[in-house]
């Protein structure tokens, strides 16, 4: 029986942080980007450039700043041709998140700096990442389906460009669909930042050692991939397909609640929100709009709505404050837009790159920032003497 042994390591934990970027009130279902309610940002004319500038620089841009920032992003959407070679090395059925971990991390081989704490170096790294990650994501998709790479076309907005690089065909003229482009832009804004979630904390911890920011964002992508986090949108779709039909919902929920072997309802619950995730409400509206616009009748949406209705009236979920989160509807919407399930978390990473960069930059430029070293509770063996091998039983 090991004795509990505690000691004071003599340093304060640097695991938590102070930030001015995003505020969440989990009880009231409030999400603010630099003080602006997420609902206002997505219901207004706020576009990708606006939201990215706001998160990265702290204020909404004025006309000139908006134009200059959009131009700056567009001038960095291309990636080094040598980096495109990397995509040829992956197995044809490689998961796009595995590819993204590799190629985003590889950006650190193309951009080096003696000092990531230099404001100009920090800013340009964020701009490059925000501009290039959508291009890399589209290339990952195109190579996975054996289609030629489509280079970004800077006449398009960031959201339109992403859809263009994903779905245009060299043999046909690409006709951007404004409804889908706006839906994509809102989805990107919704997922941009979410204070100190697991992947953002990963980026901050990696960045606290003054590591290359491109490698830090790759670390964030690795963490986001897990089904408990960004991988949940993919897991929701698999869950809904496993349930298959409304008539099996009650049986499935009974299995979720089974005290002998409980498991999680994907797309439900949240570390912070103990009320409805405000993003889930918006995602549900967008999903209805997109399916209506595309005239898609998806029985999985009806199934999801019925599952939500039943779960929200079930004592087990009510008692545990379990509500739909942002991932509950996003997969249904993305699939209707033609985005394959394997790319759902990649799209989450494309959007979250903005928040990861804003959080990394805030940490990197913070005066006196120290290397992160979260505290532990030691419950291992107390000090004891070494026993030579020939003396051991
Ligand atoms: C994201 O942090 C962020 O901000 C993340 C994110 C972001 O934008 O970055 O919002 C994105 O990751 C959203 C979450 C996506 N994950 C899922 O949808 C996966 C399913 N959800 C769960 O795995 C879970 O709800 C978590 C991981 C999201 C939160 O887990 P917690 O904090 O450990 O849950 P908890 O400790 O508050 O659980 C309390 C109780 C437990 O039961 P009891 O031990 O009290 O009996 O609720 C149960 C849990 O077992 N529970 C669930 C459940 N989630 C928690 N039971 C059934 N289904 C669930 N989904």
TrEMBL record:
Top-level EC class as recorded in UniProt: transferase
GO molecular function, one term: citrate synthase activity
One of the record's GO cellular component terms: cytoplasm
One of the GO biological process terms: tricarboxylic acid cycle
UniProt entry keywords in alphabetical sequence: Transferase, Tricarboxylic acid cycle
Pfam families: Citrate_synt
Keyword Cell membrane carried by entry: no
Source organism, top-level taxon: Eukaryota
Active site: 270, 327
Keyword Transferase: yes
Signal peptide: none
PANTHER family recorded: CITRATE SYNTHASE
Protein name: Citrate synthase
Species of the source: Cymbomonas tetramitiformis
Classification of source organism: Eukaryota, Viridiplantae, Chlorophyta, Pyramimonadophyceae, Pyramimonadales
């Amino acid at each position: 029986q090991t004795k509990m042994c505690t000691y004071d390591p003599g340093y304060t934990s640097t695991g938590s942080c102070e930030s001015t970027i995003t505020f969440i009130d989990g009880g009231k279902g409030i999400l603010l980007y630099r003080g602006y309610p997420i609902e206002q940002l997505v219901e207004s004319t706020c576009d990708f450039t606006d939201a990215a500038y706001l998160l990265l620089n702290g204020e909404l841009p004025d006309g000139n700043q908006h134009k200059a920032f959009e131009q700056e992003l567009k001038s960095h959407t291309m990636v080094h041709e040598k980096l495109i070679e990397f995509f040829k090395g992956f197995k044809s059925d490689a998961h796009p998140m595995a590819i993204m971990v590799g190629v985003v991390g590889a950006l650190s081989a193309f951009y080096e700096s003696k000092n990531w704490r230099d404001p100009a170096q920090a800013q340009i790294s964020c701009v490059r990442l925000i501009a290039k990650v959508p291009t890399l994501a589209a290339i990952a998709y195109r190579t996975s389906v054996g289609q030629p790479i489509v280079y970004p076309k800077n006449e398009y907005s960031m959201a339109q460009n992403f859809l263009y690089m994903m779905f245009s065909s060299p043999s046909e003229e690409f006709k951007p669909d404004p409804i889908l482009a706006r839906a994509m832009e809102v989805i990107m804004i919704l997922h941009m930042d979410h204070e100190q979630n697991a992947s953002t904390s990963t980026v901050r911890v990696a960045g606290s050692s003054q590591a290359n920011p491109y490698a830090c964002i790759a670390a964030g992508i690795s963490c986001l991939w897990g089904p408990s986090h960004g991988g949940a949108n993919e897991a929701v779709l698999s869950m809904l397909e496993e349930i298959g039909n409304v008539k099996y919902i009650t049986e499935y929920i009974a299995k979720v609640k089974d005290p002998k072997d409980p498991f999680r309802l994907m797309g439900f619950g949240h570390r912070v929100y103990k009320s409805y995730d405000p993003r889930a409400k918006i995602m549900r509206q967008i999903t209805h709009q997109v399916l209506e616009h595309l005239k898609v009748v998806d029985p999985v949406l009806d199934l999801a709505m019925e599952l939500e209705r039943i779960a929200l009236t079930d004592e087990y979920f009510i008692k545990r404050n379990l509500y739909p989160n942002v991932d509950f509807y996003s997969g249904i919407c993305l699939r209707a837009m033609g985005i394959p399930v394997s790319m759902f978390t990649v799209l989450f990473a494309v959007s979250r790159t903005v928040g990861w960069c804003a959080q990394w930059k805030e940490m990197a430029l913070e005066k006196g920032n120290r290397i992160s070293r979260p505290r532990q509770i030691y419950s291992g063996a107390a000090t004891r003497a070494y026993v030579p091998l020939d003396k051991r039983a």
